[in-house]
What we know:
Largest sheet of chain B: 5 strands, antiparallel
Shape of chain A: globular
Order of helices and strands of chain A: EHEHEEE
Radius of gyration of chain A: 12 Å
Strand content of chain A: 25-35%
Helix content of chain A: 10-25%
Oligomer: heterodimer
Radius of gyration of chain B: 18 Å
Helix content of chain B: 25-40%
Number of helices of chain B: 5
Mean pLDDT of chain B: 92
CATH topology of chain A: Ubiquitin-like (UB roll)
Strand content of chain B: 25-35%
Strand order of the largest sheet of chain A: 2-1-5-3-4
Largest interface: A-B, 20 and 33 residues
CATH topology of chain B: Aldehyde Oxidoreductase, domain 3
Low-confidence stretches of chain B: none
CATH superfamily of chain B: Molybdopterin biosynthesis MoaE subunit
Distance between the termini of chain B: 31 Å
Structural class of chain A: alpha+beta
Shape of chain B: globular
Low-confidence stretches of chain A: none
CATH architecture of chain B: Alpha-Beta Complex
Largest sheet of chain A: 5 strands, mixed
Distance between the termini of chain A: 38 Å
Number of strands of chain B: 9
Number of strands of chain A: 5
Number of domains of chain B: 1
Number of helices of chain A: 2
CATH architecture of chain A: Roll
Number of domains of chain A: 1
Amino acid sequence: MRVTVRLFARLRDLAGTGELTRDVPDASTVQMLWRSLTAEMPSLAEYERTMSVAVNAEYARMTAVVHDGDEVAFMPPVSGG
Amino acid sequence: MAQVAVTSEPLDVHALTREVARPKPDTSYADEDSVRLKPDTPSGGADGAIATFTGLVRDHNQGRQVRFLEYEAYVPLAVRALSLIVEEAQTAWPTVRLGIHHRIGRLDIGEASVIIAAASPHRADAFAACRYAIERVKQIVPIWKREHFEGGEVWLEGATADPDDEAAKQVAHRIACA
């Protein structure tokens, strides 16, 4: 199945893109998707402990299961205001 | 005009004030003509206070001379996070009506990046809800600023956003009620 990955701010800069699609096995979790991304782009890994994740524009946990067509976002610490 | 918004347009604190104010006076005891608002009257009478906060782009940060800021957001989630903050504030201060607008895109020095308005029958609740809202914006809203300064540029990073983090929520509440 296929998911859309969204990356923001410095994570986007590190990846060189803010949006990409990836094929993942059925019943994959956000964590498994993250692992495959960091295997591909090791520089992203520095955010493992500080980032937030969202599935379909709702905050989610790394243990969340992703489904075909989902949009999964990885976000560095925020700095609005 | 909505209670919460993430927009690339310049912010208008007066419009937001009108949004949160209770425009309709209680007409149960009077005929409508006698309680009609003047055009520039912010509220219909139930509010005793409107507290507003405007966050501005500052020309210096951590010893750097700032040229301008670029704000980026995950817009649909940012709007949801702002709505959550409004809900939290209305749970803590049930009489308050709160509005929050955040700007994104390129902002020059002196421009408003965020505006908050809190209307309430009493000033203490209006001030508290307004302060709570800006603290929560900095904690949980997926917006980032890229600082362009003399000699370079850098993404600023603050809090790891987690709306379920009760400790962070308590910190915001303590600051609001200090």
